[in-house]
Amino acid sequence: AQKVTQAQTEISVVEKEDVTLDCVYETRDTTYYLFWYKQPPSGELVFLIRRNSFDEQNEISGRYSWNFQKSTSSFNFTITASQVVDSAVYFCALQETSGSRLTFGEGTQLTVNP
Amino acid sequence: DADVTQTPRNRITKTGKRIMLECSQTKGHDRMYWYRQDPGLGLRLIYYSFDVKDINKGEISDGYSVSRQAQAKFSLSLESAIPNQTALYFCATSDFPADMEEDTQYFGPGTRLTVL
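^ inputs. structure came back:
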């Protein structure tokens, strides 16, 4: 069965610090997809990124970057030069090719203090 | 206008009452989902539907039912609400993918339900 673990329940940093959110997953599928979603204090879920299991290239989008390593079953998310507006709960999720359902991790609450 | 809307956004009800949460989407997606979010547990799938005639149970369907009235509408019902159904409920949609590449789920704003 698939599983996603976000071991960091809460992280607190000071503005402009870099921060990495960890995500470890388990799956028996050879083809699968990994996601990150952001949930700001307003409550909605915002899609950030989707990666397929055949593409291990790191992705960078502005201050956001993602490091996918199949060897360690990890898909970590780094925010560079964090800002107060980055404060949110971040969810990592897994989607197997056997179905369209998403399996979510427990989420990491990130607080960026001024 | 939002692509995925949920009504109501907030609801307080009493134990034993029947409650319906509604989801509408203008994205033209075939697939729709209902999740619930509880603190420390992430989101868990309740039901999903791949088209109007297709309804499937998720991992926590007990105590819930759904109705897919049209491609754009997917309702979640609690026939007899109980306090442990207090949670944040999300509807999501995704397109029918040719090769899974476009099967990204987009979420509505959520409905906060409190059962007293």
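The two ends of chain A are 41 Å apart (CA to CA). Chain A is about 0% helix and 55% strand.
thumbs up if we can close this ticket
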